[in-house]
Design goal:
This protein is mainly alpha-helical. Helix content is about 50%, strand content about 5%. The longest helix has 20 residues, at about 35-55. The chain is flat and about 50 Å long.
Length: about 120
């Protein structure tokens, strides 16, 4: 088994090459969100929305926005991280959040430009 590495060897290799084991990298997510707290709040809210979307698929049209990217991941939190990293989900400023009644997230999609 000369071609296989142990988990510790993989971690050491990632450290020496400067790569994170998380994809997308936390650094990229923090650039978008601005702070760790904002990243946790934003990703948790979006993951709950994605989870609700998938649980209501058979009920017809709803008010929940579907995932904005094609992702190989099946976990709502991973999909939310991918959306944040690609700039599809951005945090609202506090003033904008106070004015909005229904959503805490801004979803940028081609359909939004048509309205």
């Amino acid at each position: 088994m000369s071609g296989l590495r142990t988990l510790n060897e993989e971690i050491e290799l990632a450290d020496t090459l400067g790569r994170s084991m998380m994809v997308p990298p936390v650094e990229k997510l923090l650039e978008v969100a601005g702070s760790k707290f904002s990243l946790v709040s934003l990703s948790a809210k979006r993951a709950r929305q994605i989870n609700s979307y998938y649980s209501r698929l058979g009920e017809g049209l709803g008010s929940i926005v579907p995932p904005q990217i094609d992702s190989t991941s099946t976990k709502p939190l991973s999909i939310a991280f991918d959306e944040i990293a690609e700039g599809k989900i951005i945090p609202r400023k506090e003033e904008e959040a106070l004015e909005a009644d229904s959503l805490d997230l801004v979803v940028e999609s081609p359909e939004a430009e048509l309205e």
